[in-house]
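Narrative of accomplishments. A recurring question from our advisory board has been how the design workflow behaves on a single, concrete structure rather than in aggregate. To address it, we present the structure tokens for one chain from the evaluation set, followed by the sequence designed for it. No filtering or post-editing was applied between the two.
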């Protein structure tokens, strides 16, 4: 493998790794929001869902955004 090909390959792997780390972080925030929701701490639930949405927006994850918007709606509907 030539040096240029190796450099490009490493860059792609680094971006993929960063993408997956951000997605994992957003998923964890979503799960934490679910825990807060189930425990009745609606303020913290919405805060974590909102933080997850910000990450999903930077990554262009429309499904993640939609899921957390639904979760926020469920919080407000349950009050």
């Amino acid at each position: 493998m030539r040096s240029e090909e190796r450099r490009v390959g490493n860059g792609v792997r680094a971006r993929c790794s960063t993408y997956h780390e951000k997605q994992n972080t957003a998923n964890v925030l979503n799960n934490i929001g679910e825990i807060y929701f189930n425990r009745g701490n609606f303020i913290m639930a919405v805060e974590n869902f909102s933080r997850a949405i910000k990450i999903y927006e930077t990554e262009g994850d429309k499904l993640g955004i939609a899921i957390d918007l639904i979760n926020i709606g469920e919080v407000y509907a349950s009050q």
